[in-house]
Structures are given as C-alpha cells and as structure tokens.
C-alpha cells in the first residue's frame, strides 16, 4: 500500500458519475416519444424514469436490461402509450454508446499514476458495464455489478462485496458518486468517506452528509494526489 496517500481504494459509481447517463436517458426518451408521435419533455421524464427504475429495482431481482425495459414501459404507460419489446429495450441498446464526461479519463489516469486502486460499483449487468468501461479507456482493479451481487443500490451488497474482496479497511476507502439516494447515503451508513459529484447544483437532503461536494471529478486530483516535491536549486 502507498501509505502517503489518504486512501488505498477509490470506488466509483459509473452512470451519472463517470458516464453521462442523463443525456443518454433523455435522448432515448426523446427518440421513443417521437416514434410514438408524442410531444414530451425529455428532461422532466428522465427524472421520472429514475424514480420508476428505482421502484422496479426494489422488487424481485431482475437483470438490469429487464429493469430498464420494464421501467420504460411503465414510464410510457403513464403517457398513455404502450411500448413493444424493441421500443422498451432502447436504453440497454443505446447504453454502451453513452459518453464519459470530459474529465473522466484524465482524472482516473491521474489517480492510477498516484498509486490508487480503483473500482466501480454499478447497478448494471456485467456486459453493459464492460462496454462503458471500454469507452473510458482506463483500467479498474474491480468491477462490481448488480448481476454479480443480485441486488441493487441503495442496498449495501456492492460495498460488502468490494470490502470483502479487497480487505481494505473502511477508513481507507473513498466512495465517489453522483446519486445521494443510491450511493452517498448507504456508503455513509457503512462508515465510508464519500465525495458527492453534484453536477446539476442540486440541494443536499438530510441524511446524506458527504465529506466532499464537487461540481465534477476534477477536484479529486488536488484532493487525493500528493504534490510533487519541489526541486532543490543548485548552489553556485
């Protein structure tokens, strides 16, 4: 372990934190609405989709592709439209093309160079996550998915799995995520330090209490990487 670093392991949520999932969801809703001849507010429905998806995840375990398809069907049923199977699967088909945020690869590479172990804890299937990680282009030491733990955040099995697998003490782990409900609150409940990536300027709510709040990932570099030692000037 690199004892000069404040942590040994940095864990990340993926979608909304490393990958721009809001843009991906809005685009899928807009395309589906247009195909159905509906005039929709994609931003408003994207927020509603997240609520519907979370409700679906709290039922019996389903693979994430199935969760997305069912959530899309339920979302459009609220708009008076019944989607067929192909229409409902648009999210899982488009997800591998969702783009990383501009600073994602740069920050992750800086953390790797400094000696950190990096992991992703995500509410998706293995194959979907691997395709997204390939777009980022940075190697992670561990990937923990809902498919592996048969559970969805905010339940705590993702963190239990990574802590057991790495044997890193809780005090040496920092969790980085954009969702207060899915990530920050359960991670804090387990006793982990957290950095909330608040890209939309949202207001925090009671029970979250992240250790750090940033508008994007960039401040992780000065927070977590030690400054380079100053060069000694030569005496003449």
Could you explain how this protein is built, in words?
- The structure is a single chain.
- With 236 residues, the chain is α/β, with parallel strands linked by helices.
- The chain folds into two domains: 9-19 and 99-224, HAD superfamily/HAD-like (Rossmann fold, 3-Layer(aba) Sandwich); 21-97, DNA polymerase, domain 1 (Orthogonal Bundle), CATH 1.10.150.
- The protein is built from eleven helices and six strands.
- The protein has helices at 21-35, 42-57, 64-77, 85-88, 90-94, 104-113, 126-136, 146-149, 157-166, 180-189, 220-224; strands spanning 9-12, 117-122, 142-145, 173-177, 193-197, 212-214.
- The protein has a six-stranded parallel beta sheet, sandwiched between helices.
- Helix 1 (21-35) crosses helix 2.
- The chain is globular, with a radius of gyration of 19 Å.
- The mean pLDDT is 93.
């Amino acid at each position: 372990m690199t004892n000069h670093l404040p942590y040994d392991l940095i864990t990340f949520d993926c979608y909304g934190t490393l990958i721009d999932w809001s843009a991906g969801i809005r685009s899928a809703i807009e395309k589906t609405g247009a195909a159905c001849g509906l005039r929709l507010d994609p931003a408003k429905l994207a927020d509603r989709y997240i609520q519907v998806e979370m409700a679906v995840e709290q039922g019996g375990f389903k693979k994430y592709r199935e969760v997305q398809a069912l959530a899309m069907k339920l979302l459009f049923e609220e708009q008076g439209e019944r989607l067929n199977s192909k229409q409902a699967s648009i999210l899982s088909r488009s997800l591998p093309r969702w783009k990383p945020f501009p600073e994602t690869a740069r920050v992750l590479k800086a953390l790797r160079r400094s000696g950190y172990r990096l992991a992703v804890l995500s509410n998706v299937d293995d194959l979907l996550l691997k395709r997204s990680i390939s777009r980022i282009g940075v190697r992670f030491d561990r990937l923990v998915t809902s498919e592996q733990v048969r559970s969805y955040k905010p339940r705590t099995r993702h963190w239990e799995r990574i802590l057991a697998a790495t044997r890193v003490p809780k005090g040496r782990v920092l969790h980085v995520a954009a969702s207060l409900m899915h990530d920050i609150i359960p991670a804090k409940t387990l006793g982990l330090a957290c950095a909330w990536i608040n890209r939309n300027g949202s207001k925090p709510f009671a029970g979250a209490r992240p250790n750090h709040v940033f508008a994007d990932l960039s401040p992780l570099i000065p927070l977590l990487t030690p400054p380079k030692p100053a060069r000694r000037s030569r005496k003449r």
